Each structure stands twice: as C-alpha cells, then as structure tokens.
Amino acid sequence: MRLSGYPRCNYLRVAFLLIGMATIFDSHVVCAAEPDAAALEFFEKKIRPIFVAHCSECHGKKKHGGLLLDSREGWMTGGDSGTTIIPGDLEKSILIRAVRWTDKDLRMPPKQKLSDTEIADLETWVKAGAADPRTSLEKTNGSTAKPRYGVSLEEGRKFWSYQPVQEPAVPQVKGTAWPRNTVDHFILQRMESAGVVPVTTADPRTLLRRVTFDLTGLPPTPAEMDAFLADKSPQAFERVVDRLLESPRNGERWGRHWLDVVRYADTCGNASDYPVPQAHRYRDWVIRAFNRDLSYQQFLREQIAGDLLPSDNDAQRYDRITATGYLAIARRFGGSRTGEHHLTLEDTIDNIGRAILGSSLSCARCHDHKFDPITMSDYYGIYGIFESTRYPFPGAEADKKQADFVSLMSPAEIDELLAPHRAKMAALDAEVKTLEAAEAETKKTPESPEKKAIVDAATKSLNEARQRHKAAANEAPLVTNAYAVAEGTAANTKMQLRGDPKRLGNEVPRHFPAILGGQELPKEANGSGRLQLAEWIVDPQNSLTARVMVNRIWQYHFGRGIVETPNDFGLRGQLPTHPELLDYLASQFAKRGWSVKSMHRLILLSQTWQLSSATPADPAGVNAKNRDLDPNNDLYWHFNRSRLDAESIRDSLLFVGGELDETPGGVHPFPLQHTWGWTQHNPFVANYESRRRSIYLMQQRLKKNPYLALFDGADPSSSTGVRLPSTTPLQALFAMNDPLAHGQSSKFAQRILASSSEDQLRINAAYQLAFSRPALPEEQQECLEFLTRYRTRLVDLKSPADQTEIKAWSALARSLMGANEFIYVD
Fold this sequence. Notes:
This protein has helices at residues 11-25, 37-59, 72-77, 94-100, 116-127, 153-156, 182-194, 204-216, 222-230, 236-245, 248-261, 280-291, 296-305, 314-323, 325-328, 341-356, 376-387, 411-444, 451-473, 530-538, 545-558, 579-591, 596-604, 622-629, 646-656, 706-710, 729-737, 739-755, 759-771, 777-796, 804-817, 820-823, and strands spanning 389-390, 406-407, 481-482, 486-487, 493-496, 504-508, 642-643, 824-825. The chain is mainly α. The longest helix has 34 residues, at 411-444. The chain is globular. The relative contact order is 0.11.
C-alpha cells in the first residue's frame, strides 16, 4: 500500500505519527500527562474541598453505586453508571451531568444541589484535564522513598527572591530636575536606558481624587477639593497625604487589602458554613493596626503568636489574642469537629506561604515542591507547629455548639457577669426538682376519681417549669470571647505520605524551610513553636517577608506589583520589572521601622506616582514612540487608569447619596446561637444590608455577597493576591436597575435639589460630588436637555406633578453614577 503524496522513505515516519496522534487522543486512558502546578493547586483549593464536604460520606469509605471518589483511580474506574469523568469532555462526564441536576434520575448530591460556583469549579477542573494527585491506598506500594524535587537548595539560592535583600545605590540620571525623591531615580534610569520619556504630572484635581481614593477608598469632598486648590504652597500635596494617612478611613481602606490576601470571612467554610459572630473582632483589629501604623514585624508577630507575647495589661493581652484570629479564620471542612482538621492546617500553611512569604508552601504537602526549593520535610516542619496549636471550633452539622474560643474576660469578670444568671438557673433547678417530686407523689396516691386531674395538674406545672428553665438557659449572658487560637499539645509531626494523614512516614522536627534559614525549634523549647515561627518570618535575614509586603504596597498604588504575581515569588512567578527598586523599597521598609505609612509617603510623593494617565497624541510623536517601546507601560512612563474596586464603588454611591454611615461595623445580626441547626444540605446563607462601609459587609465563605461578586470582590475561600476586573453587561445594568443604585440616586437628587434653585448650579453641584470637578459648558447643555426631555416624558406618562423634579434629577443622578468617570480613577 502506498500513501499518495508521500515518498517511500516517509512511510514509517507517517505510521509513527499516526500512532502518536492516537495516543494523544486517548491520553486520558493511556498515559495522561503530568499535571502542572497550577492544575494541582486548583484541585487542592477548589475540588478536594467539594469532594470532602459533599461526596465523601457516600463515595469515600463507602462505595454507593459502586463508585469511590477518594482517589484518581476511583473515579477513573467509575461505578454502576459507567465511567464517571472523561477528562476534557464535560458532556460525557457523568459527574458533571449529576451535579448540574439536568437529569431528574441522576442528581448528586441528592438532597441539595451544589452552589453555582462549586459546579463551575468542577466544570473548569474536568475541562482542563481533571488533575488529581490522590492515589488509591490499594494501588500504592507504601513506599516512603523521598521524591526528587525540581530545584536543589544550591540552585534555589541562586534565584533572585531567595538571595539576601541588598540596598542598591541610587542610580544616576541625566534628567536631574525630574525626580522628586529616590524612587524616581530608579524609574527614570530605566526609562532613559530604553529611550522612553515620561508624560507630564497630573493636574491638581486628578491628584487629589486619586490619592483620596488610594488612601481612604472614598472620593474627596467638595470642601477638601476647594481647600487643596487654594493651597499654593510647595507642601500642599504632602499635607494632603499626611491628613489622609491620619484618617480612620485609611485603616478601613488598607485593612481591606490585607483581608483580601488572608481570605477573611465571617463564616467558617465547612459543609454547613456556620457563621462566626466573633470573627469581626479580627477584622476590626486589622483596621486598628493599620490606623496606628503598627510596625509590620509586630503586625505579623501578633497574628501568628499574639497570645504568646508579653503584655503590659489585660487590654493589650486581649488585643493580641484577638490578632490570632488570622490563624483561626482558616477554612474548616466537613461536618464534624476533627474529621478533616488536617485540611484546616493545610489552609493555614498555604496562606502563610502566599500572603506573607509569597510562596506556594502547600505544593510540598504530598511531595517535594516541583519548582521551588521547598521539601516535604520543610512543609511538615511547619505543619507540626500548627498541629501543636488548638484551633477554635465554630460549630458544624454534627456538633452545633462553639468550643475552644478564647475568653477576653478575666475569671472575676466572668463570675460577675454570670452570677445573676447562675442564681436564676439555680432557683429554676430547685423549682423543677420540687415539681418533679410533687408529680411523683401524686402518682403514688390511691386511685380515685380526682387522681387523674391532680396528676395532670402536677404534670402541667412541671412542664411549664421545664419550659421556663429551657428558655432561661438560652438567655445566658454571652462571655466576650475571640475566634482565636491557643496552645495545644506540643509535639513534632510525621510526614503524611501522598498527603494522606492515615499513611505516616518519618517524624519531622519543627523548623523553618531550609531555603529561608532552616532554623529548628530548640529541644528545650516549650509550646507549639508559633512564637519562634513568627520571629523566623520577621527576621530581616529572611529574603522574602519585606519584599513581598513592599511589592503589595506598590501594587495597590499602581495597579500592579513590581512582581506581578504578588503571591508567588518562586520560580514559576513573574520576575520583577525593577529588581533594584524592589530591594531599595525592602531595605527602606526595614530602615523606617517597618512602617507601612512611611512607605505610602515615599511612593505617593514620588514624581512617578503623580504622573498623568493621559497619553494624547503630541506633535513630536513622543507618546507614540513610548507606546511602541513600552506598550504595557512596564517602565511607568504614565499612570495607569484603573477601575474602582467593588467596595469603593458601593461606598461612593452611599457617599454621593449622603447616606454613608462611617461608624465601625461591629457584629453582624446573626440568628441566636441556640437556634442554629444548619446542615450540609441546608447551609447557612444570609446577606445583611447596611449603610456602613463595604469592608463591614458580612463576608460569607461559600456564597459570595451578590454585590461583591458582581464587581469582582475577593474570594473569601482563598488568598486573593490580585483582583482581576471583569467587564460584564450586569455591571452596566447595575446603575440602572439595582435597588441600591436607585435608592442612592434618589438621595443624590435630593441633595442636588437642595443645593440651589438654579439648574446650572445644581448640575455643577452634582458634578462636584460625582466627579470632583465642575461641569464643562457642553456637559451643562447636555444635562439641561436631558432634564427637559425627561420632564416632558413624565408629563406624557401622567406622572404626578409633585414627583416630576425628583424623578428627573434621580434619572440624571443615575446617569452620572453609571458613567466611567464615576467608577474609574485617572
């Protein structure tokens, strides 16, 4: 047989090609490719929790329908219905059909459909190839051989992020008049080398609006704008920065950034997602810490080991205990108290790695890290520290009562608080016992026509007393306590082979990863080792901690970090665009007492940050050349225009409506604890409306707040290093249709109408509030024409005459609130 068009010498080559293609097309059966780190991470963060929470009861140890989902081999083998998952093919995967509930005869879980987010995660996982690192116990040989990792310690030490922070010399530049401070020297030197020319400085109105949103998450008031424009001194902008840094709103703005990376939530994340009313104490602690400019070293110490630090008084001790809410808010799994606690510890370690060290430590849970110099031994060296820590129990389906929360009251204060209740309960106990005895006596009396009535009366009195006792028990005063950690039983841990807590390997001493110093817990040390871990993390010799934080500060000021993967400074992360500047900022951070506010001042007072975002065409073609040389603005030759985040959009709506409540949020109105009875198939779900700032909205772990989800809020289940903005029709429709937008446009209109009796002045007032500037002449004309047409239309629709003005101005307000200028910052 001859293949037309191919020379004879290529027959064998074609045959091999066809065989290779067949292998590829059937790769899910023959030899699936090794999944990459991102795919495995997606499984660990999104898919494994779904299997644990919703599938393990019937398809874990049990084998309902002949199907096991506790390993890759389990779902590849399938069950009575056939092959469960076909990697890459959603429509042929029975699992996907089951969770979608489109087949009335095949619905899983059978009692309660998964959330839309969970279903979408499963679809993403299957479509991407269903990466799953789990191995069936029956199909493993139990080998404890140490797997080889991708980067040796020696190779790792050559990588930029694992090298010590070095303070570089400030570069010399040709344009000596351009820099305002040392930051600008690093930026300008790179621009000059590339032949790029920076744009002009932003105008004062733009600068004030930009910096006010940057530091407070709110727009400037018209009075603040007038005062800034009137201040002609060289220090005018510096005074604005100092004023905003001292505002309580600064802690709310930058506290929200921190809560993104530590995946803060007000619910625990287990199968029934029990609420944690005390979680807000940690959120409020974070806000206070940023407002008082707590040194970043101490900020981390208190979150990891605040309960172990010496304190000057009870107030300080309770404050530091509350800080350990950072550890306590780790996600819970399953429906019982201890069943999946190892996953909570994994979540803790994962977040410490990403949020503080910019490292994917959890990738070493099942095997040595495939890309970074972190071993399983390193992972379990930290694991033992948290396994020696007592975590609070928030409640779950199998055990609804909270336990092991840490009291924020002294024993004497608790006794004083509970004394009246204890006395009341003692009296009710005595009453019940007396009535029980009386009922028993009536039952012993000789039979008579009156006996039944007497016994019934005694029983009725007893039941009423028991009801009073039960009601009073639920009225006990709540002891003030914190969702915080405490010391547990201190011990080293054993490695978990393939990440399975039931298959243990060698014991590992508690220690820090070797690449970051490898410090071990001294043998004579008492306790979990959290205090030592905190010191290892904040040690200036640690190459990551300062770099990661200054990169985050830079990112939130410029829209992206010098390292564009803020949660990953490893070999799979992005390289820094300005490595010398990053090290300069890190060394300055340490020199300035690890003060976050000091870094704000350094960055905000630079010429780089104050550049305009406008890049218009110019006669000399400079901006066109800049765009050709640096289309992504990696060299910062102009400021990047950016959309406000979800919280700032909502807060701005309340601001222009005059309804923003600036008081701290406090506790959420959760149901009383004795009424809690949520289950895996009937989980807690709530959304509490408020006029307070958006940082105080209740954040649910398994079901994101609908508004925050619409505008790309942080994922409360995992560390959000970067919010990726989306553009959807629903966002545009929000300003036109959402009750919040309608309510605030009406309030906004009332403010406009009250500001003046002349339409032109009213329009100017509206523009000042919405855009921090007066309306241009052409905008004045457009608004007047809009109002005229709208009023005419209302008359045609026979709208009540007394409602014409408020409706017309509300419509104009909605138009302004839906404009790009309202939700973008230049």
